[in-house]
Specification:
binds uridine-diphosphate-N-acetylglucosamine; 419 residues; UDP-n-acetylglucosamine1-carboxyvinyl-transferase, Chain
Length: 419
């Protein structure tokens, strides 16, 4: 497997362009299953998870082409209601096909995603909500089977805001009979992006981005085009890279309005953040200050930025308390960061990080996307060489990571397997 080798100590400077959002692209691509003709999506990031989605759409009978940063999905041949284990296990977000398959074909059979490195990540809330729309749901042989000739609108309150659950329900309810109200819905920008895509297809969705979303079901949805929004987590990762290295980085094509919690926290570390409509300039302090973080559903501080901030805390002055409230077991990067010299003590869902003057490079690996990103960030400031193994995880979520960082002056290279 490829590895990434970084020699730390370079200050990052220059301009980098944000890619399209992985987490917005996944449901939006899947939503094409609801259309009556080919849908075109631009600014789609070239990532392993997107290729997995394209493969899944093809398996279901749709035609999907990915070239440049454009994906065209023609759902004309979509008639297979089954998403098999082999495809779902590669990417948990495959569960997003459940709602659209059910709404379109009246029955669906989707493999259960199984365990995940960052906790149990169940789908009980997706299933409970689909049952409220009238679906008969069964779990057998590791699969969810759902059936219902025509879903019926309902008033649904989620026990906790779930991003994937809200997305599955938006897609299912778009073709249901009558009105669906989703309460305690997730408010992430990716939900708004999906609602926009569905509305462009002729759906009637209001309230996306708030905790209460109303969906007036329609008989059919038409083909439409959409440009994928910028990736706020990728952007946030480059912001931390700039802050960590005392750098001066401009990020173009991004959405500062999706990153307010991250910007607030970065400013508290002494980092200067200047924002415009679609750009940001981030200038790191000579020594960042520690800052306490508590992950929350949007608009709170994103769990997907927790690992990256932990690296900043690890080299900051003073101590930081980092609480993870979204996923249990999302501190898998801690043991690897400790190997680089970080002083981190974990108790339950809280990590106390005592800032150190220096980290020192070592071979490391991680079993999750954002944890791997945090190791890359650590490598940028560690003395000597850091070797990140299992690059597979980074390729799921960061488009041209090493190219973008090298463009900002990092000493980083990918070593192909066997190299
Ligand atoms: C999405 C993002 C992921 C991000 C997460 C939280 C995608 C593809 N992934 O994941 O990057 O970290 O939002 O912002 O967009 N839960 C249940 N039952 C359910 C569903 C969720 O208990 O049926 C729990 C989860 O275990 C977790 C919490 O709800 O503790 C939030 O999960 P959710 O918002 O659903 O995350 P994902 O959609 O899986």
């Amino acid at each position: 497997m490829d590895k990434i080798v970084i020699r730390g100590g370079r200050r990052l400077a220059g301009t980098v362009t944000a890619s399209g959002s992985k987490n917005a692209a996944l449901p939006v691509l899947v939503s094409a299953l609801l259309a009556d003709g080919p849908c075109t999506y631009d600014n789609v990031p070239d990532l392993r998870d997107i290729h997995s989605t394209v493969e899944l759409l093809r398996h279901l009978g749709a035609t999907a082409d990915f070239a440049g940063n454009r994906v065209v999905v023609d759902p004309g041949g979509f008639c297979n209601p089954e998403a098999p284990y082999d495809l779902v296990r590669k990417m948990r977000a495959s569960i997003l096909v459940l709602g659209p398959i059910l709404a379109r074909l009246g029955r669906a059979r989707v493999s259960l995603p199984g365990g995940c490195a960052i906790g149990a990540r169940p789908i009980n809330l997706h299933l409970k909500a689909l049952a409220r729309l009238g679906a008969d749901i069964r779990l057998e042989h590791g699969y969810v089977t759902a059936s219902c000739p025509r879903l019926k609108g309902a008033d649904i309150t989620f026990d906790i805001p779930t991003v994937g659950g809200t997305e599955n329900l938006l897609m299912a309810a778009a073709l249901a009979e009558g009105v669906t109200t989703l309460r305690n819905a997730a408010r992430e920008p990716e939900i708004v992006a999906l609602a926009d895509a569905l509305n462009a297809m002729g759906a009637h969705i209001t309230g996306a981005g708030t905790a209460t979303i109303e969906i007036q079901g329609v008989e059919a949805l038409k083909a439409a085009s959409q440009t994928i929004i910028a990736d706020r987590i990728e952007t946030g990762t480059y912001m931390v890279a700039a802050a960590l290295t005392g750098g001066d980085v401009k990020i173009e094509g991004c959405r500062p309005d999706h990153l307010e919690a991250v910007i607030d926290k970065l400013r508290l570390t002494g980092t200067a953040v200047e924002t415009g409509g679609d750009w940001m300039r981030v200038r790191g302090a000579p020594v960042p200050r520690g800052v306490d973080i508590k992950t929350q559903p949007y608009p709170g501080f994103p769990t997907d930025m927790q690992a990256q901030f932990m690296v900043l805390a690890a080299v900051a002055s003073g101590s930081s308390v980092i609480s993870e409230t979204i996923f249990e077991n999302r501190f898998i990067h801690v043991s690897e960061l400790r190997r680089l010299g970080a002083d981190i003590v974990v108790s339950g869902n809280t990590a106390v990080v005592k800032g150190q003057n220096r980290l020192s490079g070592a071979p490391v690996m991680a079993t999750d996307l954002r944890a791997s990103a945090s190791l890359v960030l650590a490598g940028l400031v560690a003395e000597g060489t850091t070797e990140i193994n299992r690059v597979y995880h980074l390729d799921r979520g960061y488009e041209d990571l090493e190219g973008k960082l090298a463009g900002l002056g990092a000493d980083i290279r990918r070593v192909p397997a066997g190299g």
